[in-house]
Amino acid sequence: xxRGKKQNPFAARKRQKRxxxxxxxxxxxxxxxxxxxxxxxAFIKYYHLQNICADEEEWTQFLASIRENLPTTFRVTGFKDxxxxxxxxxxxxxxxxxxxxxxxxxxxxxxxxxxxxxxxxYPNGMAYQLHLTRKDIRRxxxxxxxxxxxxxxxxxxxxxxxxxxxxxxxxVLDVQPTxxxxxxxxxxxxxxxxxxxxxxxxxxxxxxxxxxxxxxxVDNNRCYMLVHQAKRLNSPCLxxxxxxxxxxxxxxxxxxxxxxxxxxxxxxxxxDVPCSGDGTLRKxxxxxxxxxLAQAYNLHGVQYRIVRRGAExxxxxxxxxxxxxxxxxxENEAVLQRIIKDSEGALELVDASHLVPGLKYKPGMTDWKxxxxxxxxxxTSFDQVPEQLHTxxxxxxxxxxxxxxxxxxxxxxxxVLPHLQDSxxxxxxxxxxxxxxxxxxNDLEDLLKKAEQLEKxxxxxxxxxxxxxxxxxxxxxxxxxxxKRRRLHGYKEDPYVFFGEDDADYESIRQFYQLNETLNKRCxxxxxxxxxxxxxxxxSDPIRDxxxxxxxxxxxxxxxxxxxxxxxxxxxxxxxxxxQEGLQTSNAFIGSSRRIQxxxxxxxxxxxxTDPTKPPSTLELKPETQQRCKELGVGSCILKYVDEAFTLFxxxxxxxxxxxxxxxxxxxxxxxxxxxxxxxxxxxxxxEKAKEAAAAAAAAAAAAGDAAEQKNDETEEVMESSEKE
Length: 725
Known about the structure:
Blueprint: H1 9-19, H2 41-49, H3 56-66, E1 72-76, H4 83-106, E2 117-118, E3 127-130, H5 134-139, H6 144-155, E4 159-161, H7 168-173, E5 180-183, H8 190-199, E6 212-217, H9 220-231, E7 238-242, E8 252-254, E9 261-263, E10 266-272, H10 287-290, H11 293-313, E11 314-324, H12 333-343, E12 347-350, E13 362-363, E14 370-371, E15 378-379, H13 402-408, E16 414-416, H14 418-421, E17 426-433, H15 444-455, E18 497-498, H16 504-513, E19 524-526, E20 535-538, H17 541-550, E21 555-559, E22 561-566, E23 576-578, H18 580-586, E24 595-597, H19 600-607, H20 623-630, E25 635-642, E26 647-654, E27 659-661, H21 665-675, H22 686-724
Parallel strand pairs: 5-6, 5-10, 6-7, 10-11, 24-25
Antiparallel strand pairs: 1-3, 1-4, 2-3, 7-21, 8-9, 11-17, 12-17, 13-16, 14-15, 16-17, 18-19, 19-20, 20-22, 22-23, 25-26, 26-27
Helix pairs in contact: 11-12
């Protein structure tokens, strides 16, 4: 083995067992997949003990429901202009196809098929539940059009596939466009996307929302998943960071009026904390095999530290939502009673049921019991816990006395059980801050001092101690001290380089696109330090302020929406084209010289051109469009289409004698669907493709067999002739 190379302990253990003559595990890869047994004696005993259901009849319903697969749910992205038009297509065309396909799948008459359910508690009827599982949709040929629709529209950012109960926390957080929002445990990003939607809910009032969403996660890899999810919404008001939420650092902000620095306090905070996840048993049946109480005991402290840190960063009058996908009171009510008690009246639980009218739920529990890992010993107070379990089961996990519990108002929490409305299990609590906490940390002076030190030029001479030896400086990392609790792994991020006052590229962009003065050029940025910029991004003013003040205090993963892309062409006078991702933002700042209005038939023609090397000639367009093209020079432009129900803006490219739409495949299908165009060209039936591939493989095998047989015959003839000779 090479020097310094670490040995794989698992492979070493396997070799050792083989050397000792231990029997090898049987290879079961060829055996058929066994369905997971949806049963766990400890789980059933524990929750029956907690009386989470009113009576035995309801308990039976609960057990039956939690053993079934979870139905599929999705919601329409509400802030987009074309949302109502897409919702109308979903209600008519998609659901008609849904009924036909389900009838074919289950061999039922169409009138017996259960229609999709509009979730009554989701605003504006924008969310639906299908009576099909993910497996049904993925693996059933009659449903391939529904599957294609869900994939394409999700990628285009028009809908989001998300578990129904997962939609509740952002709704009760009640985000407004002016709010500073923190999502402490954001990955994979479905709730973050909801927060962004709420931020952009009033486009007629705010071109760019004054508020922002800071989405954080401790896992570096999951941060990139979060970026992928959130980027579908193309918001310039999003910042993604990578840090341990329980030790999230205070951030600096600049006061516009006084130009002074202060510690940032958030108006809204979402704490969707890590949990045992037993509320997701319908979606993740493998939890049946793994579930035990040790998970809840281990997570209780982490959950408390996260919500405590969130409460510290919350502004007075602000709102914090604590949520888990667990049913366990140790992870839910026990955490909340602890933080409310420790706050000494600064925090208050509030009722937010009016924000989700029609949602069926049970109130928070005021009494519960603890048990050993195997649930073979039950404890009602810490005095009953054996000494050897004192490090696992803590006094704060037990319910407070009835008199104290009644003052906390724990019944204002919402416990969503699977059988109440055919969903997953979930827990949600809403907290409001009445005054500053006694234990809040105010380290403004330290942060300012640290910022000043980073701004100072590095000293050329090394400092020496009394003996003349060089003094070792403390090592600092961009994401702050971690107290050795967790090492944050991941890639080194590219720098965030904002445009200066006299940036040469900006001046040429401004002149070509006639950018108006309301665009703050200092909010444009690149991710490289070379003069030749490739991609130019745009972020809002508050996000720029956050990045500049805190990039050395926390690890920033991503921000900004792609707005301009270098696209040099020998026929164009300007090297940057518009990016479709950023058009939602940049459209408001671009003048009239690079715009062209197109008719429905012209737009369908442009979108149906899938070969970028052969764009439609302008002569194929309507005379009105041809005339507008003549007035437009070569280069990037905005195609505008006005419908009765919506208006579309699409990035285009005006060639010397052609015009093309600059959008990807999924966005193309989405727009064609809105226009009512024929989509058969883009419909892919993976089952037909698989059959064709199998037939081609069989034909190739048969041809190979015939060739081999013919060769054998020829060989035999040669041998026979040689024997005769």
